[in-house]
Design brief:
Distance between the termini: 44 Å
Structural class: mainly alpha
Helix content: 55-70%
Biased composition (Basic and acidic residues): 299-310
Strand order of the largest sheet: 1-2
Radius of gyration: 22 Å
Shape: globular
Strand content: under 5%
GO molecular function, one term: DNA binding
Keywords: DNA recombination
Protein name: Integrase
Number of domains: 3
Number of helices: 14
Order of helices and strands: HHHHHHHHHEEHHHHH
Organism: Pseudomonas peli
């Protein structure tokens, strides 16, 4: 770890006097003050864990959390799941976050639940069962208009880029717009590089996406509202985290009002769109089981592999999650 937090034998392993503060502190240290969204997600889930520890076991020091206590918490989460209070995904995430935090705090995996699905009695399914929002591009027009009217034009640009190219939120914000415009003009396709997670052969693996008319329009609009002196959607004096915490978070009420709970859904809509174009048939999630056409294994796999590359990874299971079913 990059920072010294004193004796590992001290309260909360030296990360702070209060348990939840110590958890957030250890996450920030581990991620070197980056990965804001990841830190925030783990921190919020573990806040519930801290509340449970205090009310059920009067524990306010991470050194007192052992495997037995963790299993008791997992049983509590399973009870919420069985009562229908939370979803499988939520239950899995809560236990997973405690796994992450305990490993960082302790420096080992002695307090850890490896088979979360078994403990919960139910496994999380990543496979979509409902078509993503934003499938019909024109249906986004009212949302775009509202975002522009309410002084969120840069979020409108993010929406257009995400839906047109399959970019992640970070990628849309940090995209080098002049470069994309040049590539679209010269090659008829764009290479998505900025802000990537680097899940394939590093963040610089080629990731070419066709520069359709919709893509060209999205880039042109983004450039038109980009701050002078900037190559992306951030102003020259603004950090990514500042933009995320301020502008993007403030726009989420408008997004939800138009049926877009997560910008990530537009990435799934792009994947489904490309499946129709490449395979010639709708993605499985867009039709009922009895209407789903049968593709040859080779055609099915070829289309999904190309979509995976355009989304920025080689894992077919992630692409299958977007499209609705595993490839045959």
């Amino acid at each position: 770890m990059s920072k010294n937090h004193g004796s590992r034998d001290s309260r909360n392993f030296g990360f702070g006097r209060k348990l939840h503060y110590a958890i957030k502190n250890c996450l920030r240290t581990h991620f070197a003050d980056g990965h804001y969204a990841t830190v925030q997600a783990h921190s919020e889930r573990c806040r519930l864990f801290c509340d449970w520890l205090l009310s059920s076991h009067q524990i306010a020091d991470a050194r007192l959390i052992n495997q037995e206590v963790f299993y008791a918490y997992a049983a509590h989460v399973r009870g919420l799941l069985e009562n229908g209070d939370i979803s499988v995904s939520t239950a899995t995430n809560r236990i997973s976050s405690v796994n992450v935090v305990m490993k960082i705090l302790r420096g080992d995996t002695k307090v850890h639940i490896s088979k979360i699905g078994k403990v919960l009695g139910e496994k999380r399914s990543h496979i979509r069962s409902v078509a993503p929002q934003g499938m019909i591009f024109e249906h986004l027009d009212p949302l775009i208009d509202d975002l522009i009217k309410t002084d969120f034009p840069r979020v409108a640009a993010i929406i257009l880029l995400a839906r047109a190219t399959g970019m992640r939120l970070r990628e849309a914000i940090l995209a080098d717009l002049p470069r994309l415009a040049r590539e679209a003009s010269k090659f008829g396709q764009i290479n998505i590089q900025d802000g990537c997670k680097g899940g394939r052969s590093g963040a610089f693996a080629p990731r070419w996406v066709p520069a359709t008319d919709i893509v060209l329009s999205a880039i042109e609009f983004a450039r038109s509202i980009s701050t002078p002196g900037s190559r992306n959607l951030l102003s020259p004096t603004e950090s990514y985290v500042e933009f995320l915490r301020g502008t993007v978070n403030a726009s989420r009420i408008t997004l939800k009002a138009h049926g877009i709970p997560r910008i990530h859904d537009l990435r799934a809509a792009y994947a489904c769109d490309r499946h129709q174009e490449l395979a010639g048939v709708p993605a499985p999630v867009c039709v009922s089981d009895d209407e789903s056409p049968v593709l040859s294994k080779s055609s099915n796999r070829e289309a999904r592999q190309k979509i995976s590359r355009e989304l920025g990874h080689e894992r077919l299971d992630v692409t299958n999650a977007y499209l609705g079913k595993h490839s045959s």
